[in-house]
Amino acid sequence: MSSGKDNDDKALLAAALAGLLPDDPPGAARAAALRARILDTARRSRTQVVRAGEGDWIPFVPGIHIKSLRRDPHSRTQTSLWRIEAGAVIPPHPHASEEECLVLSGSVVHDGVEYRSGDYLLAAPGERHQAFTSPEGALLLIRGELLPDPARVRALLENPPDA
Fold first, then answer.
1. Which domains does the chain carry?
2. Where are the transmembrane segments (predicted)?
3. Beta strands of the chain (E only): which ranges?
4. Cβ pair 115, 103 in contact under 8 A
5. Which residues pair with 64 in a beta bridge?
6. 132 class by beta-carbon count within 10 Å (0-12 exposed, 13-18 middle, 19+ buried)
7. Is 102 helix (H, G, I), strand (E, B) or coil?
8. Tens digits of per-residue pLDDT, 94-133?
């Protein structure tokens, strides 16, 4: 429930925006209170943080676990970490939208080229990747389209539909 003071503040802000400020500025106490509220709001961090020990590593396909860092259903994008065990394979897949991949540690091999820590890959919309392999294991940061439910992917891999 809004207090009378909040309503007065909103009215004062609306008047200021409309260029209709009263001739007399608010008193010193009121001005200080307004300034404090504005600075308090500005100091509040809007940054979302996921600490290293937070979040769940969800099995995706054999040898690959994914930890979601951010999901945005509105833009249909997500940012996630992919932990790939040595010898695991990321199956061939298409890209409906752009995908960014940064190799944080280890390495992955695609189309005969090895990508190591610090390497960045950008897949364009419509690109279809061949399988990625990871002979030594890897940790990837991937930003791209929303992934399907990992349980659904596992079920499809274990029982592929008849072609």
1. 4-43 (no CATH), 58-158 (2.60.120.10)
2. none
3. 58-61, 64-72, 77-84, 88-90, 93-94, 99-110, 113-116, 120-123, 128-129, 132-134, 138-145
4. yes
5. 61, 84
6. buried
7. strand
8. 888 999 999 999 999 999 999 999 999 999 999 988 999 9
Three-state DSSP state, 155? helix
Q: Which two tokens stand for residue 38?
A: 């504005």
Dist. CA 155–CA 114, nearest whole Å: 30
Taking the complete model, does pTM exceed 0.70, yes or no? no
Residue type, 130: Q
C-beta of residue 81 within 8 angstroms of C-beta of residue 100: no
- Name every residue whose Cβ is closer than 8 Å to that of residue 132 and which is 6 or more positions away in sequence: 89, 90, 108, 109, 110
140 and 146 in contact (C-beta within 8 Å)?
no
Look up residue 132 and give its amino acid. Answer: F
